Amino acid sequence: xxxxIGYIGSKKASSVMLDSLRKLEYRGYDSVGMAVFxxxxxxxxxxxxxxxxxDRLDFQELKGNVGIxxxxxxxxxxxxxxxxxxxxxxxxxxxxxxNGIIENFLELKDQLKRLGHGFKSDTDSEVVAHLIExxxxxxxxxxxxxxxSVGELKxxxxxxxxxxxxxxxxxxxxxxSPLVIGVGEGENFIASDVPAFLKHSRKAVFLKNHDVxxxxxxxxxxxxxxxxxxxxxxxxxIDWNVEQAEKTGFPHFMLKEIFEQPTTLRQALNxxxxxxxxxxxxxxxxxxxxxxxxxxxxxxxxxxxQLLxxxxxxSECVIASEYKNIINMVDDDTVVVAISQSGxxxxxxxxxxxxxxxxxxxxxxxNGPGSTLTRISDDTIYIYAGPEIGVASTKAFTGQLAVxxxxxxPELKDELITLSNKxxxxxxxEGLIRRIAEKIRNANDVYFLGKGLNYPTALEAxxxxxxxxxxxxxxMPAGELKHGTLALIEKxxxxxxxxPKNEFFHETISGAQEVKAxxxxxxxxxxxxxxxxxxxxxxxxxLPELYPLIFTIIFQLLSYYTSILRGNNPDFPxxxxxxxxxx
Length: 583
Ligand code: F6R
Hints:
Layout: E1 3-8, H1 13-24, E2 31-38, E3 40-47, H2 50-57, E4 66-72, E5 87-88, E6 94-102, H3 105-114, H4 126-137, H5 142-150, E7 155-163, E8 170-175, E9 180-183, E10 188-191, E11 203-206, E12 211-215, E13 220-224, E14 236-237, H6 253-259, H7 261-269, H8 273-285, E15 288-293, H9 295-310, E16 316-319, E17 334-340, H10 346-357, E18 361-366, H11 372-376, E19 379-382, H12 395-408, H13 413-427, H14 430-440, E20 445-450, H15 454-469, E21 472-477, E22 494-498, H16 505-517, E23 521-526, E24 535-538, H17 547-565
The structure holds fructose -6-phosphate.
The site of fructose -6-phosphate has 15 residues, from helix 9 and helix 15.
């Protein structure tokens, strides 16, 4: 992943970029660095989170009004100071930052070494600086050198380059990794994502694949790498406000985003019903329907599948990285519903591209405005959750569910709107949920059980707990435990059960009884207490279909507090980053 930012204007670039790096940290936090031009190119970089590295290196000592910066999620090359970006050429006159993967870097590195280039890092990215140097040495302009260098690269990249010989511009290139320009007055920004410059500008130009942008303080020119023609800039107004990208008094983005859900649910429900009806009609008419998504979005899709099934519409859910298993079933009589918070998940983008090649119609349910998926889908339904910065997805999940409910069961719209009040009620139970977190904080394993729509809920609960508390967790259908996993239940193992009084209540309770008989510690969530539970948290009554939305607040808060009690930072889970833009 990685987050990149470039600034050119009359402010101190290091100060602007330091702030932007904090906003992009959700994309990676292994190391951080920046380079600015101040008579010559100067850089500082090192391993660790932005603020820690800044404490050591004081980025703001770097003067100059143009610069590029990077926060890294390591893919090629370990987490070391040398592997941190930015990377220079041999002369120190070219510097780059990169997000993505250069697949042929070993081959290029060998060629460049044979030409006498010396490398300082193990990264794939460093080859780009040396390639640009090679073409500059041959007498090319900076722009032509970048174009020729990019022509040699295979893989995915969002690249920013600065050259001391032409320090009035940043050159940016995009292929398969996101880049967006923030348009200012006498200054411009280029970043992996909008929050990086939201404080300064709400005017954005999303680069398309194969775009190359030449950005000066007063002008932006965009060319297509393949046609070499200048493109018309399409400036989009971003209706996110600055507070949405700040913690606004919450200790973590994750908690803030959990608490935003009554509002974001209402926002997600504010849809053009005609458009949703048309999408549903296309789904009904298609011979095959595939939901494709990853992680949390995949769990949302599993709920979508069950909602459609209740209306007699068959569909399948496919994990994005597994799409190849079904791609030969995808044809022009297929509808693909791609679900994604970011709209930039590499596996999903590939799945959608391949599905389109086979003639499928693709609808996407997305949060990220201007994201790649919105451009390659036939139509996009936005969930309007605002920026989701916590690495663990929260409000995007409930937003995705809201859209799926509304599309499959528009008759529930009024009840869904009132549900936002019930979510408020659940948020008030924060203290009770924290007490449950205290009970499980030292557990080695936690199990979540649910049936029907609450089975994907259990899967999402387990994912949330795992990724931020690092406790092993599993979600499963309540009736499935006895087919194997029951062997793992012994005295005191926490088992959480989503047990609303719906058509599956008795079967769910029978799964809980099996756990009880083996000594498991049972924590139940529902609208009516049952004696099997050692502990029970009562939730407000709603329609049987809608409990997943209510339970979501519980497991999100539970995961959050378990993470806190174990001394973790829930906004920065180890080894993870948001927006998985690499395969
Ligand atoms: C988990 C989480 C991930 C994402 C997954 C897909 O909390 O955030 O599992 O859901 O990487 O990302 P999007 O939805 O952006 O495609």
